[in-house]
Amino acid sequence: MNQDTICALATANGIGAIGIIRVSGNQSIEIVNKVFQGKNLEKADSHTVHYGFIVDDEIQDSRIEIRNSENFNQQPTLNNPIDEVMVSVFRAPKTFTTENSVEISFHGSPHIAKKILEVLIKNGARMAKAGEFTMRAFLNGRIDLSQAESIADLIASENEASRKVALNQLKGGITNEISILRGDLLNFTSLIELELDFAEEDVEFADRTALKTLLKKTEEKLRSLIDSFQYGNAIKNGVDVAIIGKPNAGKSTLLNALLKEERAIVSDIAGTTRDTIEEVLHIKGTAFRFIDTAGIRETTDLIEEIGVKKAKEKIESAKILLYLYDETDSTPQEVINFIKEFYREDLKIILLHNKIDLQNGYFENEFDNALKSALFPDYTTQIIGISAKNKTGIEALKSELSEYIQNLETQENTIITNQRHYEALQRSLESVKKVEDAISGNISTELLAYELRYALEYLGEISGEFTNDEVLGNIFSKFCIGK
Ligand code: GDP
Fold first, then answer.
1. Does domain 6-128 have CATH number 3.30.1360.120?
2. Ligand 1 in reach of 49 Cβ (< 6 A)
3. Cβ neighbours of residue 442 under 8 Å, at least 6 residues apart?
4. pTM as predicted
5. What is the ipTM of this complex?
């Protein structure tokens, strides 16, 4: 149990109607009481709210007695009142941190927040570190590690899909899945370890065939959770889309058409989009991050060179590639070479035949037929005719993008969105596979027990059953102060 009493601003640091300072620790009620002019908080019931003032002078015991007496109206005059506040008292253990906690709601000025924090610190509290409230909730056993992480995800959620996934995790979604897997494996591990105790007698408590069946089931479940990460990651972090094409193909115009605002600079001079521009478009709750890049081509211009290099890097990290071409300024072979060079199985490539307004909306002509015969069916891609300038074909493009997400959706109720969980699941899968190999290879019971322990440990990392200070520090330092 942590003895320090910590305090921090829990609301955003800026002007607001109300700001909230959170105080947690054994002494929190006592400390706030010392600077609170109003009811004696030490006598207050849990989960109650009290009106009063935070004052800059410590309130002496005699005054507390007056507050506590029948003659509550005879309040002593206030010394240095800082603000009129509402104070909520939460008594252990039914609090966020499981410790005594107080929340002070004040008029939302950063200056007032600073003054109140100062007076709390003067009276024995200390400033909380980033994520320290949530870390206490975890260390005191109120939530597990994946739930703590989901709180950060909830705060960061920017759309419906990521909010829902984070909330499911907070409600224990992944914890439940993992504890079922661990529970089954643990039973077997205990039996195998029992065998070790009776090594001399050559007995087999753990039915190897049943263990194999369980391992297969576990493996399937792990794979399915691991697979859900692609979707989870897309809804949490968005999908990177690279817009590529020769200079003047219409990349900036397309970006503007997608975003409906004149953000990227459009010009007739080849190579004006020097650097990359990133813009986000939400389609059905998923963030698509568009990266408008300098055209990929041979260049002697040094500044352009940097842009071209960046474009290549961006394609590497992108999940979707929009390749724009203007048939009057390109050849099918150029497009074909490009696609062949950048093709990856996990990259969705959409060819955009731009400026179809110049052909009376007509596309899929010889140019496109040449592309199709050279690229299909080995290089999965499709062609959409658009006019970035007239905003034709933009809806077709958007539905193609949202289809990308639909294809990733999984039957899993629990979706992995967290890189750390993803990695722990992969390690678990590796060790489950090793256990399987071990059984088939008739290895010693000792080694089997050893591999099983590893599998259990990796699974336990997700909920924080097995963890270390470095991992914890890493997770909680990313939280904001006050959370
Ligand atoms: P970027 O270099 O690929 O970013 O190309 P821009 O977006 O700057 O466009 C280059 C030129 O092509 C500009 O003059 C645009 O107005 C023009 N342009 C872009 N899209 C279209 C289109 O669909 N139709 C026509 N007619 N012109 C377009």
1. yes
2. no
3. none
4. 0.70
5. 0.99
